[in-house]
């Protein structure tokens, strides 16, 4: 897949320092998965990308097969992690894999899916599990809520447009090209109830929702990232406010198939 560079593969330590330790999202995933995945469970990871968290779990011996539309830095990964297993697989369109799994892990993939695609995805994942198997599902976004929408749709655009003239003046003095404000579609955001309802219709029951990573959304703000978070008292305040829009929402669903 395009857009990925194979840097940070000199050693296992460098790999995890480069791709895991600096990411609050991946740290949250690691904490959750390390405590919720049984050591002997057979696991399938969906849209694994660079397989950062999966490799952290594979290292001590967990049984995980990673999948995606294509591999990323395969030669470099196998050199560091010889037990890494990857299957090129389109989880939405290709035939189901011939084996069933105790756990299916999906970290962030559903942010790419509209409501109909989400329904289709959940049905397929239920079919890929053993009877009574578990789906660990993360949304990689805060919920579609008033507080999060206020940040995304109003504050961040205003901040960007207000700061743009000052940033461009600084860049011109440094001989750099000017910046511009772009609005991008970062994916579909769902409420907890919407996700639970879709999973229920696909044959799952909800066991638990864990909320983590209360700072990721604030880090979208240049003012917060470079100034406010450096003041411990202010950072603590924003972390408390961030609990209203956790970036990592880990859903644990159990298949009702017998």
Structural account:
With 258 residues, the protein is of the alpha/beta class. The protein is built from nine helices and seven strands; from the N terminus they run ααβαβαββαβααβααβ. Helices cover 40% and strands 19% of the residues. It has a seven-stranded mixed sheet with strand order 3-2-1-4-5-7-6, sandwiched between helices. α5 links the parallel β4 and β5. It starts with 11 loop residues before the first helix and ends with a strand. The model has no long low-confidence stretch (mean pLDDT 93).
Blueprint of the fold:
Layout: H1 12-19, H2 24-36, E1 42-46, H3 52-58, E2 63-68, H4 74-80, E3 86-88, E4 101-107, H5 115-128, E5 129-138, H6 146-173, H7 192-201, E6 204-212, H8 222-226, H9 232-242, E7 248-255
Parallel strand pairs: 1-2, 1-4, 2-3, 4-5
Antiparallel strand pairs: 5-7, 6-7
Helix pairs in contact: 2-3
């Amino acid at each position: 897949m395009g857009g990925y560079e194979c840097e940070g593969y000199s050693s296992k330590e460098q790999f995890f320092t480069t791709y895991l330790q600096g990411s609050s999202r991946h740290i949250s995933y690691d904490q959750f998965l390390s405590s919720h995945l049984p050591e002997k469970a057979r696991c399938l990871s969906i849209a694994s990308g660079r397989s950062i968290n999966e490799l952290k779990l594979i290292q001590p011996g967990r049984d995980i097969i990673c999948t995606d539309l294509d591999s990323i830095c395969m030669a470099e990964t196998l050199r560091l992690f010889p037990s890494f297993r990857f299957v090129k697989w389109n989880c939405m369109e290709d035939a189901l894999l011939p084996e069933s799994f105790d756990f299916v892990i999906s970290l962030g993939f559903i942010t790419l899916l509209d409501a109909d695609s989400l329904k289709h995805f959940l049905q397929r994942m239920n079919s890929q599990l053993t009877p009574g198997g578990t789906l660990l599902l993360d949304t990689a976004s805060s919920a579609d809520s008033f507080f999060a929408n206020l940040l995304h749709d109003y504050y961040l655009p205003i901040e960007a447009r207000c700061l743009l003239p000052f940033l461009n003046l600084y860049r011109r003095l440094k001989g750099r090209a000017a910046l511009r404000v772009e609005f991008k579609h970062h994916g579909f955001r769902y409420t907890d109830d919407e996700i639970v309802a879709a999973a229920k219709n696909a044959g799952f029951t909800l066991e638990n929702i864990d909320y983590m990573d209360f700072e990721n959304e604030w880090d979208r703000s240049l003012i917060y990232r470079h100034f406010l978070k450096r003041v411990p008292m202010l950072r603590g305040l924003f972390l408390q406010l961030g609990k209203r829009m956790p970036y990592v929402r880990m859903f644990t669903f159990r298949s009702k198939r017998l």
